[in-house]
Design goal:
The protein is an alpha/beta fold. The protein has three domains: about 100 residues, no CATH class; about 375 residues, Rossmann fold (3-Layer(aba) Sandwich); about 325 residues, Rossmann fold (3-Layer(aba) Sandwich). It contains 34 helices and 23 strands. The strands form five sheets. Strands 1, 2, 5, 6, 9, 10, 11, 12, 16 and 17 form a ten-stranded mixed β-sheet that branches. The structure holds ligand 26Q.
């Protein structure tokens, strides 16, 4: 079934539309337009088609009257839309042909699009995959996010060090896939005070903001796969409101109003570049409230327009909070219901506590959000009152369950007492949400047992698991067309919407002809990546080498430095041991470090320095190459993932909530070397022990080692290979004439206590890598394992994740259009 049923594709009309946009939208001509403008005009013509479907979906009575999910996320890492939408529309060949006739290669035009990098990493990309799946399966959905002017910074390397530059993702001409919805704009308040009055003896409290900011929505179309459904991803942009006749301004509160003016335009200026680390900055809280309030307002507007009453809100709308970042939506809904709709507390809480669900993405203490009570008090005085009251009533429940147990109250309280009182956003979420989920089985188990054990006891049905997933449309069909075609030849072409069907490919795992075809596709993808690296980085690669890939944000817990130590051990052996042999290997890295994360930047520097030396060393004779791809982003992932042989998923056990790159790589036939962490555990369950390389301490092993007192020096002294590898960082091998320039990592591992147990897992990691080296030498053995990885990834389709959310949490029905 193709979407072209409602709007049949007409090549001539499409070409005319492209030319019209060249002229009218971009003020250029067929003769003089650059390839970039051709891409813009083509995308505009496509976007027009999807916008019609967006409006039709929005106005479809069955959609209006159905229960919807509202996915609230400060990040949506959608990646380029044009190529993916061609796939979803089922028009790849048609538009390829149409553009060919106009003298342009579609693949070249698609390369003109900049990535909208409106997210940091896993959490933002997950939101994008989820939107894709909701549209594919036609569960009514609105995504709510922020329209940052600058996305995640662009990364370059200067003298091997990371440099950051702003990412003006829309380009000067504007992004062709978005449309402003001025009729849906709103005003959002900040600061000010709370007025109290008594009406018929009842206390009524009203927030009088000291500043207002306009929220302008921009809609991006989320195109359902081969159906006619298009849902909006609605991104809010902050604009200052003029004229600035604000109450606090008039009251002589001149400074605050002045201050406010400065902030208004800045609220959605830039995405915070921290990943798994929170910093309690005022502007970040302003972003969060701006996002929550605008989204909440829009949800209630839609609910009312559908003719439903507020008491019915939980029956028709569910709100999924992507981590704690949009938590302030909970007190915001309470404020609206009580202060604007005059509802008593119990009625308002009855609605509120059946509306929100919360996804936790991390156990790292430094990533759990808590805000200064004084900051919330100043920025959102009425919300602070409501948070106190939520907490007061909640603590009554706690003391009813555990009478007299003060320590339970302290642990569970939304307010952390102390010199600076703090609001714990995760606690507020668990109290206010009807469902709380972790993102992989192991992670959810740790959420229950370690993060929220007392909440779990108090509310035994609230905590649950929904294992993450990835969209097979972007992460196989679109990014790996050769493998997709090979699969479709064998099992038909329904698998992109029914990924469990891939299991049928397992029947061919022993078939030597299929093995050859599979490995030929892999080789072609490796060649494509090698060409890219040659062109953009000037490094020549051998496509017969093992392509070993670690692509993810740079973080100590993800342990890029463990991978680095292994590279150093290979270098050491190649240089010092004539009898040492290995299959040639290329180590690929792609990773951005948060700009303020010192050690992460030092690790990037060290890997780049090692690459410089190793790649130029004739004695290494191409056994070893190191490629750190700059500015890793979704469009780079689309080239690297199909070309990978080995997928590095080597976090300290218990630290990576799920991972989703692990799923993308395995789906594309890479074998995982990984710890028993996050979704690796479930990947192993699916593919079986023979088809994955598991190493290192598991969660219990980590706990035990720490309990017994871990001393990294013991590992260092006991393992000569580890010692030799680490010592390379302290010398001048990679920084001639400047010994010690790579010492930072060495120091952290040896004298900084090695917080992520890199040295403890080193020996086991080396063993796993040696098994990989051994197995790869027999290409049939390897091919079978790779095929089975592709075949057995069905579980990790985000369609399955969304079905889990729908059945267990959201309770939605699809509206098939
Ligand atoms: C918080 C406060 C202030 C500024 C920034 C932040 C912030 C921003 C982004 C905190 C965390 C993030 C992102 C977290 C993230 O990406 N987590 C990952 O989520 C994936 C999807 O569930 C998991 O697969 C990964 O394991 C997890 O690390």
């Amino acid at each position: 079934m193709k979407p072209t049923q409602t709007h049949p594709f007409d090549k001539k009309l499409f070409q005319d539309n492209v030319k019209r946009h060249l002229n009218v939208t971009y003020a250029t001509t067929v003769e003089s337009a650059s390839p970039h403008v051709w891409y813009l005009a083509m995308a505009k013509a496509m976007a027009e088609m999807t916008m019609l479907n967006l409006l039709e979906t929005e106005q479809d009575e069955r959609v209006i009257k159905a229960k919807s999910v509202n996915y609230l996320s400060l990040e949506f890492l959608i990646g380029r839309l044009t190529g993916n939408n061609l796939i979803s529309l089922g028009l790849y060949d048609e538009i390829n042909d149409a553009m060919q006739e106009l003298g342009h290669s579609l693949t070249d035009l698609l390369e003109e699009e900049r990535d909208p990098s409106l997210g940091n990493g896993g959490l933002g990309r997950l939101a994008a995959c989820f939107m894709d799946s909701c549209a594919a399966m036609e569960y009514p959905t609105v995504g709510y996010g922020l329209h940052y002017e600058y996305g995640l910074f662009k990364q370059s390397f200067k003298d091997c060090q990371q440099k950051e530059a702003p990412d003006a993702w829309q380009g000067i001409e504007g992004y062709p896939w978005e449309v402003a919805r001025p009729e849906l704009k709103q005003d959002i308040g900040f600061y000010g005070h709370v007025d109290v009055e008594y009406i018929d003896g009842e206390e009524r409290r009203t927030w009088v903001p000291g500043m207002k900011v306009q929220a302008m929505p921009w809609d991006l179309p989320i195109v359902g796969y081969e159906n006619n459904t298009v849902y909006p991803l609605r991104l809010w942009e902050a604009r200052a409101i003029a004229p600035f006749s604000l109450e606090s301004f008039n009251n002589g509160n001149y400074f605050e109003a002045q201050h406010a003016l400065i902030d208004a335009d800045n609220i959605t200026k830039v995405l915070y570049p921290n990943d798994n680390h929170e910093k309690g900055k005022t502007l970040r809280l302003m972003q969060q409230y701006f996002h929550s309030a605008a989204s909440m307002g829009d949800i209630l507007r839609r609910h009312k327009a559908a003719g439903f009453s507020l008491d019915e809100l939980p029956d028709y709308e569910t709100i999924q909070l992507n981590d704690t970042h949009p938590t302030i939506a909970i007190p915001e809904l309470m404020r609206i219901l009580m202060d604007e709709q005059a509802m008593p507390w119990d009625q308002a809480w009855g609605i509120c506590s059946r509306t929100f669900a919360y996804t936790n993405h991390t156990l790292l203490p430094e990533a759990l959000e808590s805000w200064d009570e004084s900051l919330i008090q100043r920025l959102l005085p009425r919300h602070m009152e409501i948070i106190y009251e939520i907490n007061r009533r909640f603590l009554l429940e706690v003391s009813a369950k555990w009478p007299g147990d003060v320590s339970k109250q302290q642990k569970l309280s939304v307010i952390q007492e102390g010199f600076h009182r703090m609001v714990r956003m995760a606690n507020l979420c668990v109290v206010g949400a009807y469902a709380v989920n972790g993102v992989a089985a192991l992670h959810s188990d740790l959420v229950k047992r370690h993060l929220f054990p007392d909440f779990h006891e108090l509310y035994p049905d609230r905590l649950t698991n929904v294992t993450n997933g990835i969209t097979p449309r972007r992460w196989l069909k679109f990014c790996n067309p050769d493998l997709s075609n090979l699969i479709s030849e064998k099992i038909g072409d329904e698998w992109p919407a029914h990924l469990e069907q891939l299991e049928k490919i397992a029947d061919y795992a022993d078939d030597s002809e299929f093995q050859e075809q599979f490995m030929a596709v892999k080789k072609a993808n490796k060649q494509r990546l090698a060409d890219w690296v040659q062109e953009h980085m000037g490094i020549e690669l051998n496509p017969d080498a093992i392509f070993d890939v670690q692509i993810k944000r740079l973080h100590e817990y993800k342990r890029q430095h463990l991978n680095m130590l292994y590279m150093l051990s290979l270098y050491h052996r190649l240089k010092t041991d004539d009898s040492f042999d290995m299959h040639p290997r290329v180590f690929f890295f792609g990773a951005k470090a948060a700009p303020g994360y010192y050690l992460a930047k030092e690790i990037i520097y060290a890997i780049n320095k090692i690459a410089e030396t190793v790649n130029a060393d004739p004695q290494i004779n191409d056994k070893l190459k190191v490629v750190f791809i700059p500015d890793y982003r979704v469009s780079i992932a689309e080239i690297v993932i199909p070309a990978a042989d080995v997928s590095e998923q080597i976090s300290t056990a218990g630290k990576e909530a799920s991972g989703t790159g692990n799923m993308k790589l395995a789906l594309n036939g890479a074998l995982t070397v990984g710890t028993m962490d996050g979704a690796n555990v479930e990947i192993r369950e699916e593919v079986g022990d023979d088809n994955i390389y598991i190493f290192g301490l598991d969660v219990d092993g980590v706990d035990e080692l720490r309990a017994n007192g871990y001393n990294p020096y013991d590992c260092y002294q006991a393992d000569p290979l580890l010692k030799a590898s680490l010592d390379l960082l302290a010398g001048e091998t990679f920084t001639p004439g400047e010994p010690g320039k790579l010492r930072a990592t060495y120091e952290s591992l040896l004298n900084g206590g090695d917080p992520y147990l890199v040295l403890a897992d080193f020996a086991s990691y080396v063993q796993a890598q040696e098994a990989i080296d051994h197995d790869y030498r027999d290409i049939q053995v390897w091919a079978k394992k790779a095929i089975l990885n592709t075949a057995l990834m069905g579980k990790f389709s985000s369609d399955r994740s969304i079905r889990d959310y729908v059945n267990r949490i959201w309770k939605l029905k699809p509206v098939k259009r």
